[in-house]
Design a protein that fits this description.
Length: 273
């Protein structure tokens, strides 16, 4: 059955190979760019006197290699989980997408060679390029042992290979193992699947709290203070205009009577005074 024997790889070869190169680079396999950057980070952590940080980084490297090749194996290996109709419509992407993928894959292979460890070929040219900008920063260590660096490098490679092998066993060789483990470790599985419920906690505190605060601002500041002030000014003007409207009737006799009353009041004021 072509759907079980690499049919998707045959339909989308460029996507598959660029995808595989990306997985190798992110997993930090030798030759690929991620290998040199990962090795530099782990080596600096160890050389600076923080073996615990090195162990944490090594565990992260193991998990990274595992989940990247889990993604690769689930996508391009084993039985296709799409239905037959969907599978028949799988096809390679157009050049507008495949050409950038090929370029990025090439950089993932050759990009790390600008920063080789000391003593390898042309050395760390990238570090030499950044040296003037980083001259003011304190150095984590002085001279180090090349043997220790190679040992740590080999260890990081073995860790990455262990993650890849674990992903192969879980999702290609014995795909029933993950379901059995998830059933046996239900609590841990639910915790990891729920991402430690960080999203739920964030939604219950920050998101809902922000909505409640914004609603309170709208209800009391916007509606009562701002709208009340604007509507109060408008209402006062409307009331005054209603009073003036009673005086300005447009009747000439009323205006004449008003002028006469005014004249009488002025004359009366001067007579009394």
């Amino acid at each position: 059955d072509i759907r079980k024997m690499g049919g998707l790889r045959a339909k989308m070869p460029i996507t598959f190979w660029t995808f595989a190169v990306a997985c190798c680079a992110i997993a930090g396999l030798p030759v690929f760019s991620g290998f040199f950057s990962k090795d530099a980070v782990l080596f600096q952590a160890y050389e600076s006197g923080h073996p615990v940080l090195w162990a944490i980084g090594a565990c992260g490297a193991l998990l990274t290699a595992f989940y990247m090749f889990r993604l690769l194996f689930l996508t391009f290996f084993g039985e296709c989980r799409a239905d037959h109709h969907t599978f028949e419509h799988f096809h390679e992407s157009p050049p507008a997408m495949t050409v950038p993928l090929v370029i990025l894959a090439g950089l993932s292979i050759g990009g790390g060679w600008v920063g080789l460890p000391a003593g390898w070929l042309w050395g760390d040219r990238f570090g030499e390029f950044l040296a003037p900008a980083l001259a003011a920063l304190p150095h984590a260590h002085g001279e180090h042992s090349a043997g220790r660096e190679y040992a740590l490098m080999a260890t990081s490679v073995l860790i990455a290979l262990a993650g890849i092998l674990l992903a192969y066993v879980f999702y290609v060789r014995s795909p029933r193992i993950p379901s059995r483990l998830s059933a046996q470790l239900r609590g841990l599985y639910d915790t990891l699947l729920g991402k430690y419920w960080v999203d739920e906690l964030y939604g219950a505190t920050v998101v809902r709290g922000t909505f409640a605060f914004a609603n309170a601002l709208w209800r009391y500041v916007d509606v009562i203070v701002i709208d009340g002030l604007v509507n109060g000014v408008g209402g006062m003007i409307q009331t005054q205009s209603g009073l003036w409207r009673r005086l300005q009737t447009g009747n000439v006799q009323h205006y004449a009577f008003t002028f006469l009353a005014g004249v009488i009041l002025v004359i009366g004021y001067f007579l009394i005074r």
